[in-house]
Amino acid sequence: MAIAKAERLMNLALCLLGTRRPLSKRELRESIEAYLEAGSDDSFNRMFERDKDDLRELGLVIETVENLDGDVGYLARRDSNRLPPITLDAEEAAALGLAAKVWQQARLAGAASGALQKLRAAGLPEDFDPYEAHSALEPRIPVHEAAFEPLMLACRDRRPVVFDYRKATAARPETRHVEPWALECWRGHWYLAGWDRDRGAERVFRLSRITGKVRSRSGRFTADIPDVVTVRETVASWAGENADRSALIRLRAEAGYPLRAKATAVRELGDGWDELEIPYGHGLDAWLVEFGPDVVVLEPAELRADVVDRLRAVAKG
Q1: DSSP string, 53-73
Q2: How many C-beta atoms lie closer than 10 Å to residue 61's C-beta?
Q3: Which of 44, 27, 34, 36 shows the shortest CA–CA distance to 11?
Q4: Which backbone phi and psi does 126 adopt, to 5 degrees?
Q5: Is the CB of residue 277 less than 8 Å from the CB of residue 246?
Q6: Of all helices (H) and strands (E), which one includes residue 37?
Q7: What is the pTM for the complete model shown?
Q8: Which has the closest alpha carbon to 239: 202, 194, 305, 189?
Q9: Alpha-carbon span 69 to 171, nearest angstrom
Q10: Nearest CA to 300 among 248, 265, 240?
Q11: pLDDT at site 8
Q12: Tens of pLDDT along 66-95?
Protein backbone atom coordinates (compact mmCIF):
# COMPACT_ATOMS: atom_id res chain seq x y z
CA MET A 1 0.00 0.00 0.00
CA ALA A 2 2.79 2.45 0.85
CA ILE A 3 4.56 1.75 -2.46
CA ALA A 4 1.33 2.22 -4.41
CA LYS A 5 0.66 5.57 -2.76
CA ALA A 6 4.23 6.75 -3.33
CA GLU A 7 3.94 5.84 -7.01
CA ARG A 8 0.61 7.65 -7.28
CA LEU A 9 2.03 10.78 -5.66
CA MET A 10 5.05 10.68 -7.97
CA ASN A 11 2.82 10.38 -11.05
CA LEU A 12 0.63 13.25 -9.91
CA ALA A 13 3.67 15.44 -9.23
CA LEU A 14 5.12 14.66 -12.68
CA CYS A 15 1.83 15.52 -14.37
CA LEU A 16 1.54 18.84 -12.54
CA LEU A 17 5.18 19.75 -13.19
CA GLY A 18 5.14 18.66 -16.82
CA THR A 19 2.12 20.59 -18.01
CA ARG A 20 2.19 24.08 -19.54
CA ARG A 21 -1.45 24.76 -18.74
CA PRO A 22 -3.68 23.93 -15.76
CA LEU A 23 -5.07 20.38 -15.84
CA SER A 24 -8.59 19.65 -14.68
CA LYS A 25 -9.50 16.79 -12.35
CA ARG A 26 -10.94 14.89 -15.31
CA GLU A 27 -7.68 15.19 -17.25
CA LEU A 28 -5.61 14.12 -14.26
CA ARG A 29 -7.87 11.13 -13.67
CA GLU A 30 -7.47 10.03 -17.28
CA SER A 31 -3.68 10.42 -17.10
CA ILE A 32 -2.97 8.45 -13.90
CA GLU A 33 -3.77 4.74 -13.82
CA ALA A 34 -4.47 4.61 -10.09
CA TYR A 35 -7.17 7.26 -10.50
CA LEU A 36 -8.76 5.34 -13.37
CA GLU A 37 -9.11 2.36 -11.04
CA ALA A 38 -11.03 4.39 -8.44
CA GLY A 39 -14.43 2.80 -7.96
CA SER A 40 -16.48 6.00 -8.10
CA ASP A 41 -16.22 9.75 -8.53
CA ASP A 42 -16.43 10.20 -4.78
CA SER A 43 -13.54 7.77 -4.22
CA PHE A 44 -11.45 9.56 -6.83
CA ASN A 45 -12.20 13.00 -5.38
CA ARG A 46 -11.21 11.91 -1.88
CA MET A 47 -8.03 10.26 -3.16
CA PHE A 48 -7.08 13.27 -5.26
CA GLU A 49 -7.65 15.79 -2.45
CA ARG A 50 -5.55 13.71 -0.04
CA ASP A 51 -2.77 13.36 -2.61
CA LYS A 52 -2.80 17.06 -3.35
CA ASP A 53 -2.54 17.91 0.34
CA ASP A 54 0.28 15.37 0.80
CA LEU A 55 2.28 16.90 -2.06
CA ARG A 56 1.83 20.36 -0.62
CA GLU A 57 3.03 19.13 2.79
CA LEU A 58 6.11 17.74 1.03
CA GLY A 59 6.83 21.22 -0.30
CA LEU A 60 5.40 21.14 -3.84
CA VAL A 61 3.77 24.46 -4.77
CA ILE A 62 0.49 23.59 -6.52
CA GLU A 63 -1.55 26.41 -8.03
CA THR A 64 -5.30 26.30 -8.42
CA VAL A 65 -6.40 28.23 -11.51
CA GLU A 66 -9.95 29.02 -12.57
CA ASN A 67 -10.58 29.79 -16.27
CA LEU A 68 -13.21 32.04 -17.80
CA ASP A 69 -15.74 29.21 -17.90
CA GLY A 70 -15.40 28.58 -14.20
CA ASP A 71 -13.53 25.29 -14.61
CA VAL A 72 -10.76 24.65 -12.06
CA GLY A 73 -7.35 23.37 -13.07
CA TYR A 74 -4.10 22.56 -11.32
CA LEU A 75 -0.42 22.95 -12.15
CA ALA A 76 2.97 23.20 -10.43
CA ARG A 77 5.17 25.78 -12.14
CA ARG A 78 8.79 24.71 -12.34
CA ASP A 79 10.12 28.15 -11.48
CA SER A 80 8.09 28.07 -8.25
CA ASN A 81 9.40 24.62 -7.32
CA ARG A 82 13.08 25.09 -8.09
CA LEU A 83 15.60 25.52 -5.28
CA PRO A 84 18.12 28.35 -5.57
CA PRO A 85 21.69 27.37 -6.52
CA ILE A 86 23.72 25.94 -3.63
CA THR A 87 27.16 27.46 -3.26
CA LEU A 88 29.68 26.18 -0.73
CA ASP A 89 33.09 27.49 0.13
CA ALA A 90 35.94 25.01 0.67
CA GLU A 91 35.48 24.75 4.45
CA GLU A 92 31.71 24.27 4.25
CA ALA A 93 32.03 21.62 1.55
CA ALA A 94 34.72 19.82 3.56
CA ALA A 95 32.60 19.82 6.73
CA LEU A 96 29.56 18.41 4.92
CA GLY A 97 31.71 15.91 3.07
CA LEU A 98 33.15 14.68 6.35
CA ALA A 99 29.66 14.36 7.84
CA ALA A 100 28.51 12.32 4.83
CA LYS A 101 31.47 9.95 5.18
CA VAL A 102 30.82 9.31 8.86
CA TRP A 103 27.77 7.15 8.15
CA GLN A 104 28.93 3.80 6.83
CA GLN A 105 26.26 1.38 7.99
CA ALA A 106 22.61 0.38 7.62
CA ARG A 107 20.29 2.26 5.30
CA LEU A 108 22.08 5.55 5.97
CA ALA A 109 25.13 4.48 3.97
CA GLY A 110 23.34 4.75 0.62
CA ALA A 111 21.84 8.14 1.45
CA ALA A 112 25.21 9.44 2.66
CA SER A 113 26.92 8.22 -0.50
CA GLY A 114 24.35 9.96 -2.69
CA ALA A 115 24.64 13.14 -0.64
CA LEU A 116 28.41 13.08 -1.01
CA GLN A 117 28.08 12.92 -4.82
CA LYS A 118 25.76 15.94 -4.74
CA LEU A 119 28.23 17.79 -2.53
CA ARG A 120 30.99 17.15 -5.02
CA ALA A 121 28.78 18.67 -7.71
CA ALA A 122 28.22 21.65 -5.42
CA GLY A 123 31.88 22.36 -4.79
CA LEU A 124 33.59 19.54 -2.91
CA PRO A 125 36.76 18.73 -4.90
CA GLU A 126 36.90 15.21 -6.34
CA ASP A 127 40.37 14.55 -4.94
CA PHE A 128 39.74 16.12 -1.53
CA ASP A 129 39.74 13.80 1.48
CA PRO A 130 38.41 15.64 4.60
CA TYR A 131 40.64 13.57 6.87
CA GLU A 132 43.51 12.69 4.53
CA ALA A 133 46.08 14.04 6.99
CA HIS A 134 44.63 11.81 9.72
CA SER A 135 43.79 8.71 7.73
CA ALA A 136 44.50 6.48 10.72
CA LEU A 137 41.60 8.15 12.56
CA GLU A 138 38.72 7.69 10.16
CA PRO A 139 35.53 8.87 11.89
CA ARG A 140 32.59 6.47 11.96
CA ILE A 141 29.37 6.14 13.89
CA PRO A 142 28.70 2.43 14.50
CA VAL A 143 25.09 1.26 14.44
CA HIS A 144 24.80 -2.33 15.65
CA GLU A 145 21.46 -2.16 17.47
CA ALA A 146 18.38 -3.34 15.59
CA ALA A 147 16.34 -0.72 17.48
CA PHE A 148 18.20 2.19 15.86
CA GLU A 149 16.36 2.35 12.55
CA PRO A 150 12.75 2.10 13.84
CA LEU A 151 13.55 4.62 16.58
CA MET A 152 15.17 6.99 14.10
CA LEU A 153 12.03 6.88 11.95
CA ALA A 154 9.78 7.26 15.00
CA CYS A 155 11.73 10.36 16.10
CA ARG A 156 11.41 11.80 12.60
CA ASP A 157 7.69 11.06 12.26
CA ARG A 158 6.81 11.89 15.88
CA ARG A 159 5.26 8.46 16.54
CA PRO A 160 4.99 6.88 20.01
CA VAL A 161 6.71 3.50 20.42
CA VAL A 162 6.64 0.49 22.70
CA PHE A 163 9.64 -1.70 23.50
CA ASP A 164 10.98 -4.04 26.17
CA TYR A 165 13.86 -2.55 28.14
CA ARG A 166 16.27 -4.29 30.51
CA LYS A 167 17.82 -2.05 33.14
CA ALA A 168 21.33 -2.78 34.31
CA THR A 169 20.03 -3.89 37.69
CA ALA A 170 17.01 -5.88 36.52
CA ALA A 171 16.90 -9.58 35.79
CA ARG A 172 14.04 -9.24 33.31
CA PRO A 173 13.07 -6.56 30.78
CA GLU A 174 10.10 -4.26 31.35
CA THR A 175 7.70 -2.86 28.75
CA ARG A 176 8.13 0.87 28.16
CA HIS A 177 5.73 3.22 26.36
CA VAL A 178 7.80 6.13 25.07
CA GLU A 179 7.39 9.28 23.01
CA PRO A 180 10.80 9.42 21.28
CA TRP A 181 12.52 12.79 20.94
CA ALA A 182 16.11 12.32 19.82
CA LEU A 183 18.91 9.80 19.34
CA GLU A 184 22.52 10.53 20.18
CA CYS A 185 25.79 8.60 20.20
CA TRP A 186 27.97 9.04 23.28
CA ARG A 187 31.23 7.17 23.90
CA GLY A 188 30.39 4.51 21.33
CA HIS A 189 26.85 3.80 22.58
CA TRP A 190 23.51 5.02 21.23
CA TYR A 191 20.92 6.56 23.54
CA LEU A 192 17.29 7.59 23.08
CA ALA A 193 15.76 10.51 24.94
CA GLY A 194 12.01 10.73 25.24
CA TRP A 195 8.94 10.93 27.43
CA ASP A 196 8.22 7.76 29.42
CA ARG A 197 4.43 7.59 29.58
CA ASP A 198 4.36 4.99 32.35
CA ARG A 199 6.51 7.10 34.65
CA GLY A 200 5.30 10.49 33.46
CA ALA A 201 8.82 11.84 33.13
CA GLU A 202 11.71 12.37 30.72
CA ARG A 203 13.97 9.34 30.42
CA VAL A 204 17.09 8.28 28.52
CA PHE A 205 17.40 4.70 27.24
CA ARG A 206 20.50 2.88 26.04
CA LEU A 207 19.68 1.10 22.77
CA SER A 208 21.79 -1.95 23.57
CA ARG A 209 19.41 -2.70 26.46
CA ILE A 210 16.30 -2.75 24.26
CA THR A 211 15.20 -6.33 23.69
CA GLY A 212 12.88 -7.56 20.95
CA LYS A 213 11.24 -5.34 18.37
CA VAL A 214 10.34 -1.68 18.62
CA ARG A 215 6.60 -1.35 17.92
CA SER A 216 5.00 1.85 16.65
CA ARG A 217 1.76 3.17 18.09
CA SER A 218 -0.82 5.54 16.66
CA GLY A 219 -1.78 8.82 18.26
CA ARG A 220 -0.03 12.06 19.09
CA PHE A 221 2.57 12.98 21.66
CA THR A 222 1.10 13.91 25.02
CA ALA A 223 4.14 15.82 26.34
CA ASP A 224 5.84 18.91 24.96
CA ILE A 225 9.18 18.33 23.26
CA PRO A 226 11.95 20.46 24.80
CA ASP A 227 13.66 23.01 22.59
CA VAL A 228 16.98 21.35 23.43
CA VAL A 229 17.14 17.63 24.21
CA THR A 230 20.28 17.08 26.31
CA VAL A 231 20.91 13.38 25.81
CA ARG A 232 24.67 13.56 26.18
CA GLU A 233 24.59 15.78 29.25
CA THR A 234 22.06 13.50 30.96
CA VAL A 235 24.08 10.35 30.31
CA ALA A 236 27.30 12.07 31.34
CA SER A 237 25.69 13.06 34.63
CA TRP A 238 24.54 9.50 35.27
CA ALA A 239 28.02 8.22 34.52
CA GLY A 240 29.60 10.60 37.01
CA GLU A 241 31.20 12.84 34.39
CA ASN A 242 29.98 15.98 36.16
CA ALA A 243 30.65 14.70 39.67
CA ASP A 244 32.24 16.86 42.35
CA ARG A 245 32.89 13.98 44.78
CA SER A 246 35.05 10.86 44.71
CA ALA A 247 34.44 7.20 45.50
CA LEU A 248 36.97 4.56 46.54
CA ILE A 249 36.57 1.09 45.08
CA ARG A 250 38.47 -2.18 44.81
CA LEU A 251 38.72 -3.52 41.27
CA ARG A 252 39.93 -6.91 40.17
CA ALA A 253 43.18 -6.71 38.21
CA GLU A 254 42.85 -6.92 34.43
CA ALA A 255 39.13 -6.00 34.65
CA GLY A 256 36.94 -2.91 34.46
CA TYR A 257 38.87 -0.89 31.90
CA PRO A 258 36.13 1.79 31.58
CA LEU A 259 36.49 2.39 35.33
CA ARG A 260 40.27 2.56 35.03
CA ALA A 261 39.93 5.17 32.31
CA LYS A 262 37.94 7.40 34.70
CA ALA A 263 40.15 6.83 37.74
CA THR A 264 41.96 9.82 39.22
CA ALA A 265 44.24 7.54 41.26
CA VAL A 266 45.14 3.83 41.08
CA ARG A 267 47.04 1.77 43.69
CA GLU A 268 47.99 -1.89 43.47
CA LEU A 269 46.77 -3.91 46.46
CA GLY A 270 48.18 -7.29 45.47
CA ASP A 271 46.36 -10.62 45.41
CA GLY A 272 44.78 -9.66 42.08
CA TRP A 273 43.12 -6.41 43.22
CA ASP A 274 43.67 -2.68 42.70
CA GLU A 275 42.30 0.32 44.56
CA LEU A 276 40.79 3.13 42.44
CA GLU A 277 39.52 6.60 43.18
CA ILE A 278 36.81 7.56 40.69
CA PRO A 279 34.37 10.48 40.24
CA TYR A 280 31.12 9.94 42.14
CA GLY A 281 27.92 11.28 40.61
CA HIS A 282 24.29 10.33 40.09
CA GLY A 283 23.91 6.85 38.61
CA LEU A 284 27.35 5.56 39.57
CA ASP A 285 25.77 2.76 41.65
CA ALA A 286 23.91 1.42 38.59
CA TRP A 287 27.09 1.53 36.52
CA LEU A 288 29.18 -0.27 39.14
CA VAL A 289 26.63 -3.09 39.35
CA GLU A 290 27.36 -3.91 35.70
CA PHE A 291 30.84 -5.07 36.70
CA GLY A 292 29.43 -7.65 39.14
CA PRO A 293 31.96 -9.40 41.41
CA ASP A 294 34.90 -7.53 39.90
CA VAL A 295 34.07 -4.40 41.93
CA VAL A 296 33.83 -3.81 45.67
CA VAL A 297 32.82 -0.35 46.94
CA LEU A 298 34.87 0.84 49.92
CA GLU A 299 33.45 4.33 50.41
CA PRO A 300 31.34 6.38 50.73
CA ALA A 301 28.95 4.29 52.78
CA GLU A 302 25.81 5.42 50.93
CA LEU A 303 27.25 4.34 47.58
CA ARG A 304 28.18 0.93 49.01
CA ALA A 305 24.64 0.54 50.38
CA ASP A 306 23.07 1.49 47.03
CA VAL A 307 25.21 -1.04 45.15
CA VAL A 308 24.38 -3.79 47.66
CA ASP A 309 20.65 -3.03 47.34
CA ARG A 310 20.82 -3.24 43.56
CA LEU A 311 22.73 -6.54 43.66
CA ARG A 312 20.15 -8.01 46.04
CA ALA A 313 17.34 -6.91 43.72
CA VAL A 314 19.05 -8.63 40.78
CA ALA A 315 19.58 -11.79 42.85
CA LYS A 316 15.88 -11.91 43.76
CA GLY A 317 14.95 -11.55 40.07
Answers
A1: HHHHHTT---EEEE-TTS-EE
A2: 15
A3: 34
A4: -60, -35
A5: yes
A6: none
A7: 0.47
A8: 189
A9: 74
A10: 248
A11: 87
A12: 876 778 899 888 877 776 666 767 777 667
